[in-house]
Amino acid sequence: MKQEKRKFLILNGPNINFLGIREPDIYGRKTYQDLIQMIEEYAEKVGVDVSFYQSNHEGDLVDIIQKAYYDCVDGIVFNPAAYTHTSVAIADAVKATGIPTVEVHISDVSKREDFRQISYLRPVAKKTVMGQGLSGYLTAMDFLISLAGEGEHKDAGHH
């Protein structure tokens, strides 16, 4: 019997759709579409299925995290953007689903403004990747693949 491909949700918060436009000195010139294409090509290479979701609205992100549970998603690569520093609701949704999640930041938030030093997601994420630019998403995918290889997957969402 052929094993099903792992399913990862690539989730992005506010303003990530403005990549290439917003503060290119921090976030680079590549667009959100470039990010999607890069991840799709990598997912094909490593044999995982990926779906994408981006929203500027906190409740939408909570809804899609909860939906991922019912869709039996194996892992979430999540750049919560500004909601990293403000949203208990998003952190609670990740915690509630039990889906292994990697927090991703394009810039190195540890070297930025004071308010960016708090992450509500970090305590419930399996790992945080920051300061690697767009390739941080691929690092996060590799980490989720390695978790699955170690039997870390808790069958979150698999009823």
Structure write-up:
With 159 residues, the protein is of the alpha/beta class. The protein is 35% helix and 18% strand. The protein contains 5 helices and 5 strands; from the N terminus they run βααβαβαββα. The longest helix is centred in the first third of the chain and has 15 residues, at 32-46. The model is unreliable at 152-159 (pLDDT under 50).
Short description:
With 159 residues, the chain is α/β, with parallel strands linked by helices.
The percentage of residues in β strands lies in: 15-25%
Q: Please provide the ordered H/E string of secondary-structure elements.
A: EHHEHEHEEH
Mean pLDDT: 90
Major beta sheet, specifics? Answer: 5 strands, parallel
What is the β-strand count?
5
Q: Give, in spatial order, the strands making up the sheet with the most strands.
A: 2-1-3-4-5
